[in-house]
Write a structure and sequence with these properties.
3-stranded antiparallel β-sheet; binds carboxymethyl coenzyme *A; Rubrerythrin, domain 2; about 50% helix
């Protein structure tokens, strides 16, 4: 859908008034089109962190951060998590509509057909040092797919569809293989008789000598966890995927860059840091006050992990789903995790503290997802990998939208603040 022109905005620069069009999206988001600003005034806009910048128009995901709304292609994320499997949502994001039963079956078969990785790629795993972070392996493997499957299909639709399918299916296999490598166990091949999430759990937890039964509660939880991560409009990693892709490079390389961006502790890496923070509180006796005080201290760079969001200024709708899932999984495993009690206390204390209230800081998606993965037996260093598997269809949909429109290469400007012209002193005379 196109943005509709809805009004104008006047900008007064150096005594001259310039008029720019205002566009409106389908949910009422309004934007001043300043694309002619520099040409007409010589000025650029300054917007560190792009907090006020719309980098594209997109049909894919809608977020209302004030009201805590998240929709993919018009469907509420809670509705999708309740009624769909992850591959239906992946299909929705990539193709624009939910699959029919026939389309879903066909898609599921297609994903299974492409689930293995080239045997030679397995050599890569064996050469990584023992404690390699699985996100490093995942991004390296994602870009390596472009060497093993060179029919990239930027211009041929069938080839591009194949690349998309390969990525969605193989990234999950690569993720499970990287875990097996990290624990020194042989890899388990994907199976054609299993669904997407069941297949992943089997590759993670079975071994050649022991077939681990798949708990349906875990498979359902995994479907829901992947769904709540599936897209989040122009966040850091998605902007990276679009930005890298705008240079004309292939989808595998763009996704590999997105994986690296996601790894950061202020982005997807936060789920790992949440657990590390909760474990530290537990080790030190379970008192949450110290962490709260540290997070509030303006002189400390420490932030309460899993709290706050650039867009959500109310409770993150994904965190609500993750919190309930976490309790469900704990009930199914019949365990008692002291970290859940600490997390709930931390949440309550923060929500009742004026520092967090004044800044609209609420739990984000990462606050409870890590705890849920932990209960499912997924190790801490795999949490961000799980986020990446979930986010993949969103990245792909955003990349396709970028590739299908005539997006110019992403190339922001800057305000230069370095030294003015100076002469090079020959090395012998430098002090
Ligand atoms: N703990 C303590 N203070 C915080 C926190 C936090 N988690 N988050 C923000 N603040 C404070 C910040 O110090 C600032 O205070 P002041 O106005 O006194 O300077 C104020 O709140 C506004 O913060 P901001 O840096 O302008 O917020 P932002 O929109 O740039 O940052 C964020 C968003 C997610 C990077 C940040 O909230 C954060 O670092 N949170 C912890 C890391 C985390 O959980 N990240 C996962 C994000 S959700 C998953 C994803 O989409 O990747």
């Amino acid at each position: 859908m196109k943005m509709e022109k809805n009004g104008t905005a006047e900008i007064r620069v150096d005594g001259k008034t310039l008029t720019y069009p205002v566009y409106e999206g389908t949910e009422g988001e309004r934007a001043i089109d300043i694309s002619k600003l520099r040409k007409e005034t010589g000025l650029i806009t300054y917007d560190s962190g792009f907090m006020n910048t719309g980098s594209c128009a997109s049909d894919i995901t809608f977020i209302d951060g004030e009201k805590g709304i998240l929709r993919y292609r018009g469907y509420d994320v809670a509705d999708l998590a309740e009624k769909c499997e992850f591959i239906e949502v992946a299909y929705l994001l990539v193709h624009g509509s939910l699959p029919t039963a026939v389309q879903k079956d066909r898609y599921s078969q297609l994903l299974n057909q492409h689930s293995m990785i080239h045997e030679d790629m397995k050599d890569f795993f064996s050469n990584y040092p023992e404690h390699s972070h699985p996100m490093a392996i995942l991004s390296a493997m994602a870009v390596s797919l472009s060497s093993f499957y060179p029919e990239l299909g930027q211009d041929v639709k069938e080839d591009l569809d194949m690349t998309v399918t390969r990525l969605i299916s193989k990234l999950r296999t690569i993720a499970a293989f990287s875990y097996k490598k990290s624990i020194g166990e042989p890899t388990i091949y994907p199976r054609h008789d299993l669904k997407y999430c069941e297949n992943f759990l089997n590759m993670m937890f079975s071994s050649p000598v022991r077939k681990e039964p798949i708990n349906p509660v875990m498979a359902d939880a995994l479907n829901k966890l992947l769904i709540i991560h599936a897209d989040h409009e122009q966040n850091c990693s998605t902007s990276v995927v679009r930005g890298v892709g705008s240079s004309g490079i292939n989808l595998y390389a763009s996704i590999a860059a997105g994986i690296c961006a996601l790894w950061g502790p202020r982005h997807g890496g936060a789920n790992q840091h949440v657990i590390e923070m909760l474990e530290e509180i537990y080790r030190e006796g379970g008192d949450v006050s110290k962490v709260i005080e540290r997070a509030k201290n303006p002189r400390s760079p420490f932030r309460l992990m899993g709290f706050g969001h650039r867009v959500y200024k109310s409770y993150d709708p994904r965190a609500k789903i993750a919190k309930e899932l976490c309790k469900k999984v704990i009930a199914a495993t019949n365990t008692k995790d002291p970290l859940l009690d600490i997390a709930q206390e931390l949440e309550e204390r923060a929500l009742n503290d004026s520092y967090f209230q004044e800044r609209n800081l609420y739990p984000n998606v990462d606050f409870y997802t890590g705890l849920t993965y932990r209960e499912m037996g997924i190790p801490t260093n795999m949490f961000t990998v799980m986020f990446a598997i979930g986010r993949l269809p969103g990245w792909i949909a955003q990349w396709l939208e970028m590739n299908n429109s005539e997006t110019p290469i992403a190339r922001p400007r800057q305000v230069y603040t370095g030294p003015n012209l100076r002469k090079v002193t020959p090395i012998a005379k430098r002090k």
